[in-house]
Amino acid sequence: MVIGLTGGIGCGKSTATAAFAARGYRTADADRIVREEVLTDPGVLALAAERWGGRVLAHDGALVRPAVAEIVFGSEMERLWWESVIHPRVRAIWRGRVEAAPRGDWVVEVPLLFEAGLEKGFDFIVCVGASRAVQVARVTARGMSQAQAGLRIASQYPLEKKLKLSHAVLWNDGAHSFLDAQVEMVAQQLHPARRGPAR
């Protein structure tokens, strides 16, 4: 089984993914793949520099992510172009991993799962949600301004829409233990024989 896990920024997707991992699920994180593999790809760096100029590359050739974020979250046209570069590469990587271990149960964390039209590629979709106030508080705690947090939230589908399109919802306004208990319920629904974190 391949579970797609999505949700809004600041909702706790990675925490939920870790809870599934503790229960024996294999995991893949689209954001991590972007950071560690896609944004270091020389071909991707060349495309970024060709479109936006040298300001998006540091002296060592690495991508200046804040500069790219300012561009793509300030222009829908640029965001869509950037996603057309990034998304196919990310999909190819995590699908390759799943195909290499087809007998395992997978949770693939994809923040823009619905935005990228990937819902048909999963057996089951879980959405992690939280209130807008909690989202903003968590995102600003990472160092973003409230304005930047608002832009990030606005660039995604409304959370309410994601919640309605998903098979299961995890609500993460409370303690970690509350989220973990919800993950346990979903895991039990999908795999009744699997109980609690793997020991």
Fill in the keyword field for this structure:
alpha/beta; globular; Rossmann fold; 199 residues; 52% helix; 9 helices; 12% strand; five-stranded parallel beta sheet; 5 strands
Structure at a glance:
By secondary structure, this protein is of the alpha/beta class. The chain folds into 2 domains: 1-25 and 106-193, Rossmann fold, CATH 3.40.50.300; 32-104. The protein is built from 9 helices and 5 strands.
Write a structural description:
The protein is of the alpha/beta class and 199 residues long. It folds into two domains: 1-25 and 106-193, 3-Layer(aba) Sandwich (Rossmann fold); 32-104. 52% of the residues lie in helices and 12% in strands. It has helices spanning 13-21, 30-38, 42-52, 65-72, 76-100, 132-141, 146-154, 159-165, 176-190; strands at 2-7, 26-29, 106-109, 124-129, 168-171. Strands 2-3-1-4-5 form a five-stranded parallel sheet, sandwiched between helices. Helix 1 (13-21) packs across helix 9 (176-190) and helix 2 (30-38) crosses helix 5 (76-100). The protein is globular. The mean pLDDT is 91.
